[in-house]
Amino acid sequence: MILSILLTFSKRIFEVSVARPLILLCGLSACFGTPGIAAYKEAVTGLPTRKLSVQEAVSETNKLLGKRKISDILGVTHTNGQYALTEKPFLIEGSEAVNKLGAKIIKLWFSPGYKKSYSWHSQWPEDISSLEELAKSPYFESVFAMPFHTYVLEVYEFIPQVYFWKKGLYDKDKAMVHNDILKLSTYLLTRYRGSGKTFILQNWESDNAMKQAMKGTMPEEWDIAYQGMREWINTRQSAVEEAREKCGTDGVRLFNAMEVNFIPSAKMIASGKTYKSPIPPAKVPFPLIVDAVVPQTHCDLYSFSSWETCYPGTEDTVFDRLQYLAAKAPHDGILGSANLMLGEFGAHEDNFEKAGKTYPIYQGDTSGSAFYALQLMVKAALRAGVRYIIHWQIYSNDLRMGGKDQGLGLPPGVMATKEDCVGNWLIRPDGTRVPTYDYFKGLFDLENDQELSRLGSDCH
């Protein structure tokens, strides 16, 4: 009780002066010993004073689940890994690795760039020209037959220009979008009827898409692009709804999701800070998609791709950013208010290599730092009540060499080594596994053990 009072008091004065809490450290150490001072430091600074074990993280996370199952929430992405560990077709290899981990949810890239996303040891058909045909391809058929219950598909239509909506959604493009999504949706609902599987069709990071589409433009050109994006997203939703109405949802589910990647934290809002315009040469803040587009859409799900929350002190802002998304997103669809997902979260290990960018206790242990950050983000998302949490990813897709675009990286056909990668992985190029892999597997294994225990007790 005394420790709790001191912690509360010292947190307040910590905001005024760093010196005063340091004086309290001596008193706490004398009164409560090392555990007391460690608890104080962690409470005030938000930084861990000892390394967290995988077992502790599993236990703490499990307590937040309530009656929910982690296998119904937590999934893993597989796309564009810069190495392979077997000679199997790459889409199948990575999907099997995610399944072996214990996940029942997988996220895959599903677009005209399928050959680049899954290139290793693969011979794709040459004549794929629609999303429906891609779903019927042998590799995707094989993965859709695996024991996953949910597939999150990052979908881009087979339209020549990627950002065709940036000058407004023309009627011909709208018809092409509707047709491609409708045919895919109809096929999935028919082919997998009675399977118990769920398919989620989503776009990629709307804010980054807008940033790339509008590079070199001025603010007076933005309004029509934002309107074009609204119409594009709503056209996709309408196609999914039409397919559900036409085919029914007997033992199969299909949802449409919209993803954003810039959401202000509560601290940003309180301080009045805004995102600086990332669209050169404009020098004014550009409208966030969560504010300017999301409220005018009517999607089944809304996804947050979170890459601003993997640094010490930012992890828990996943919660208030998701709360912000919840306040902006419509909730009158098929899933009601339970329509949020953390569609992408991860941590590049190379981010933790500098002393000022990592947790002091994990200095020199970049895999440990990533694990600590990621388990905090998982717990924040669970507290926010999201439907899905999708990790990025099973094999690292980004290289240190030449930057994230990999344009100056390895020669074609050359696989990356551990030293080449930024480290957004669960399995390294040498086949070893990072602590986050063990954390996820521990959660899935605990669920299985609890289910076996329950079945055993039911038999007596």
Query: Biggest sheet: strands, sense, closure?
Result: 8 strands, parallel, barrel
Low-confidence stretches: 1-32
Report the mean per-residue pLDDT as an integer: 89
The CATH superfamily label of the largest domain reads Glycosidases
* Helix content class: 40-55%
Beta-strand portion reads 5-15%
How many DSSP E strands?
8
What CATH architecture label of the largest domain applies? Alpha-Beta Barrel
Q: End-to-end distance, in Å?
A: 44 Å
Count of helical segments?
A: 15
CATH topology of the largest domain: TIM Barrel
Q: What is the gyration radius calculated from CA atoms?
A: 23 Å
Shape: globular
Q: What is the CATH C-level name of the largest domain?
A: Alpha Beta
H/E element order: HHHEHEHHHEHEHHEHHEHEHEH
Derived structural class: alpha/beta
Can you describe what's shown?
It is a single chain. With 460 residues, this protein is of the alpha/beta class. It folds into two domains: 1-45, no CATH class; 53-458, Glycosidases (TIM Barrel, Alpha-Beta Barrel). 43% of the residues lie in helices and 10% in strands. It contains 15 helices and eight strands. Strand 7 (340-345), helix 14 (366-384) and strand 8 (388-391) form a beta-alpha-beta unit. The two termini are 44 Å apart.
